[in-house]
Design goal:
Helix content: 40-55%
Shape: globular
Strand content: 5-15%
Number of strands: 11
Distance between the termini: 40 Å
CATH architecture: Orthogonal Bundle
Number of helices: 16
Largest sheet: 4 strands, mixed
């Protein structure tokens, strides 16, 4: 029987202005109505502005790819995220973004997939040890554990040090607070209402995270002044990169901003997708058994080697399907640089133009059984065509997520390691409640149970993993 995982059931009709405010206070997903999942372009009138939601693939491509400079990042999102991410490549536009992108691209050469794979493996091994220590078949909050392991991966690859437990909990709690207050601030700002208290709470939560990362960056700058050898990691790359156009480098504050962006965007999105992936397979034992069979066939019980994650097609498709059903970034906010026509609507300069991967991935016209968990859809011709035109979990165009290849390698490694070591079982007393804030998470967490499998000691590798692709050899973060 097909498994349809939970999502907020859409309302019959579009909500009134007041109902949109009430329903969107905690989650933008709860504002959606039935036509949202089939429309090509929506129009929502807010106080003092019009908001356009674009679901048609050709228009999505126009906004993100072919005419991307005409649709810069929305100013509201910059104001929301600036306390946390500063003026980083996630929030800036135009020449400022272009300079930052050139410098960040240089820095990321220190983070090639093959180079960082051993550090990823260290984080995954530590995760397995933590899960082992919790005992068999106990209900666990897997969202928190996935946040820990992905944050640990980013600490090791960006900063060359493991994440301490105290810092992990501080970051997790602070980001939950930031998401809650940022959602409320966004609603107030959209309605042209004062959001002073929400902004203040956002700044406080952001400061808790930034202080942890800023101390590490400051220590590295102090080390550089002594002339001592620098670790070869992404942080050193950010400090040493020189812009060929402006012939300058990032200063201390700019490095802190970029580190915060890479760390938070890099671990939060992967953690969200991994938590949902494990929930989905806990309710799909047949698919989970096929994953185990694939892992045993391709790798066996020995340690994973670099490149082997690309052989695990089903594991990868499970992750892709989780990204489809629960895209971590559920909406992409842009604004029109100039007044223009789009379909039959006059889009005025400055108006928000929003693309929602959540809606695009569940669009009734573009996907067969869109609400059903079915990782095999990516192997059918129909599914491949849907993915080509209506699947953007990492966005698209010049500002495509720079961590796509990194996140895929990391996530397949985490999933394969957990499934090989444990049987992932459901917690039948718990059902997650998806909410849409900065990322798509569960309001009440994601709980599963883990039962140990028969596990043989690791043996030496018996096969040679496939060579990296040309893109992976250059840089794991793509061409954003």
């Amino acid at each position: 029987m097909a498994f349809i995982p939970p999502y907020p059931k859409p309302h019959k009709n579009k909500s009134s202005l007041i109902l949109r405010f009430i329903r969107g206070w905690h989650s933008w997903l709860h504002v959606l109505f039935e036509k949202s999942y089939s429309m090509k372009m929506g129009h929502v009138r807010q106080r003092g502005t019009d908001v356009y939601i674009v679901n048609e693939p050709s228009l999505v491509k126009r906004i993100l790819v072919t005419e991307a400079p005409q649709y810069p990042k929305q100013g509201l999102m910059h104001r929301l995220l600036e306390p946390l991410l500063g003026s980083s490549i996630f929030t800036t536009n135009g020449p400022v973004w272009a300079r930052q992108r050139r410098l960040v691209d240089q820095a990321l050469t220190n983070g090639r997939l093959e180079t960082v794979f051993p550090k990823m493996l260290q984080s995954v091994d530590a995760m397995i040890a933590r899960l082992d220590s919790q005992g068999d078949a106990r209900s666990i909050e897997i969202d928190a554990e996935m946040t820990f392991v992905t944050a640990d991966v980013m600490f090791r690859t960006i900063l060359s040090q493991p994440l301490e437990h105290a810092d992990a909990h501080a970051i997790y709690d602070a980001f939950l607070d930031f998401q809650n207050y940022a959602q409320r601030a966004a609603i107030l700002m959209m309605y042209r209402l004062p959001a002073f208290f929400q902004h203040r709470s956002c700044r406080k939560a952001a400061a808790r995270i930034r202080s942890i990362l800023a101390k590490i960056v400051q220590a590295r700058f102090d080390l550089a002044k002594t002339g001592a050898p620098m670790p070869k990691d992404i942080l050193s790359g950010l400090m040493e990169a020189e812009d060929p156009v402006a012939q300058d480098r990032f200063n201390y504050l700019e490095v802190v901003d970029q580190v915060c962006m890479l760390f938070l965007a890099g671990h939060e999105t992967s953690a969200s997708a991994l938590g949902w992936s494990l929930y989905l397979i806990s309710r799909s034992p047949e698919i989970q058994q096929r994953m185990v069979d694939e892992i045993q066939r391709e790798v066996g019980d020995r340690a994973f080697q670099y490149g082997e994650t690309r052989r695990l097609k089903l594991v990868w498709n499970v992750f892709r399907e989780a990204l489809r059903l629960y895209p971590p970034v559920g909406f992409i906010a842009r604004e029109a640089a100039q007044t223009h026509e789009m379909r039959d609507k006059q889009v005025k300069a400055g108006c928000p133009v929003t693309i929602s991967p959540w809606l695009l991935h569940r669009h009734r016209e573009h996907w067969s059984q869109p609400d059903e968990f079915n990782p095999d859809r990516f192997e059918t011709e129909e599914g491949k065509e849907s993915a080509r035109c209506s699947y953007i979990p990492f966005s698209s165009g010049p500002r495509v997520c720079p961590g796509a290849a990194f996140a895929t390698q990391e996530s397949v490694l985490v999933l394969a390691s957990i499934v090989r070591r444990f049987e992932v079982l459901p917690d039948l007393s718990h059902e997650p409640k998806p909410v849409g804030r900065l990322t798509v998470r569960s309001a009440n967490g994601v709980r599963i149970r883990l039962q140990s499998r028969q596990y043989a000691p690791c043996a030496a590798p018996q096969t040679t993993p496939p060579p990296p692709s040309a893109a992976e050899a250059r840089c794991p973060f793509g061409s954003n």
